[in-house]
C-alpha cells in the first residue's frame, strides 16, 4: 500500500466523521430557539456533501485495493468520531467510554488484520 493510498484511506475516515458531525449539528439546530432554518439547511447540506465525498472515495479505494487492506482504517472511525464530537459539539465522554472506544478500534483492527 502506497503513502497516497494510506492518506486517501485516512482522508476517507475524516470525511465520514466530518459529515456525521455536520448532520448532528443540523439536528441540534432543529431544536434551537429561535428556530434557524437556514442554519439547519446549511449544516444538513454540508453533512450530506461530506458523506457523498466519503462514499465516492471509499468506492474508489475498494476498486483499487483489497478490502482486507483498506478496511482496518475503519478502526479509526470510532476514535475520530469521539474526538470530533468532543471538539466541535462539546460532548463529553467518561474515562470508561474512552477505554470502550479504544477497545472497539483495537477489536476491529484485530479482526480485520487476521
What would your notes on this structure say?
The longest helix is centred in the first third of the chain and has 28 residues. The protein has one domain. It has 114 residues and is mostly helical.
Structural features:
flat, mainly alpha, 114 residues
Tell how many strands the DSSP assignment holds: 0
Portion of residues in beta strands equals under 5%
The domain count comes to: 1
Distance separating the two termini? 17 Å
Count of DSSP-assigned helices: 5
- Please state the average pLDDT score: 89
Structural class: mainly alpha
Layout of helices and strands, plus pairs?
Blueprint: H1 3-30, H2 37-64, H3 67-70, H4 76-88, H5 95-113
Helix pairs in contact: 1-2, 1-4, 4-5
Quickly describe the structure.
With 114 residues, the chain is mostly helical.
Amino acid at each position: 500500500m502506497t503513502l497516497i493510498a494510506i492518506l486517501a484511506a485516512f482522508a476517507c475516515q475524516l470525511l465520514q466523521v466530518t459529515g456525521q458531525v455536520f448532520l448532528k449539528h443540523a439536528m441540534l439546530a432543529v431544536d434551537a430557539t429561535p428556530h434557524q432554518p437556514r442554519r439547519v439547511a446549511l449544516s444538513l447540506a454540508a453533512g450530506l456533501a461530506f458523506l457523498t465525498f466519503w462514499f465516492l472515495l471509499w468506492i474508489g479505494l475498494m476498486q483499487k485495493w483489497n478490502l482486507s487492506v483498506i478496511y482496518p482504517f475503519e478502526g479509526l472511525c470510532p476514535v475520530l468520531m469521539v474526538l470530533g464530537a468532543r471538539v466541535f459539539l462539546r460532548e463529553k465522554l467518561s474515562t470508561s467510554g474512552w477505554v470502550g472506544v479504544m477497545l472497539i478500534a483495537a477489536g476491529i483492527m484485530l479482526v480485520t488484520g487476521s
